[in-house]
Amino acid sequence: MKIITFLVLANLHFALSTKEYEEADRMVTWRLQNIVKKYKNLATGNAEFSQWIEKINNIAVRSDFRVKMEMEGEFNVYDQMRQSYEDKITERLTTIRSLIAQRKGGNRCVKFYQHQQNELKNAYKSSNKRKSQVVTENSRDCPTRKREKRMYDYYNDYDNYGF
């Protein structure tokens, strides 16, 4: 009698575990599908982002629970980095707009900041790695010393400086 009770309880636990597993699988599938719905249009024009969304869409319908969970975690890390870089781009663009409006540093600096503004706007559709590079390269203030002017003045004749 004790053996039968043990077997019934063991089967009941297995049945509940299977039910819980199936529910967890449904939930992760639902979350992945929501990611696809949320970001599908936003990813247009950004090859790296589009590849993530396509990969998530494929995994959501064709993979097992473990793979789905891993993909969700990897995407969340990627997406946090993407949003962080885009926030930095937006912050720098706000600063640049203000500097241009104030005409800080004269015409040469206005052109310098307009170039940075262009680079930063174009970076929104770039890979995370490229966003990081663009933010770093375009976070400088207009150079004031002669050496800095030669290095970063986009509108000077570079041939005069050996570039």
Automatic annotation (TrEMBL):
Residues 123-143 are annotated as: Disordered. It comes from the Eukaryota. This is Seminal fluid protein. Residues 1-17 form the signal peptide. Keywords: Signal.
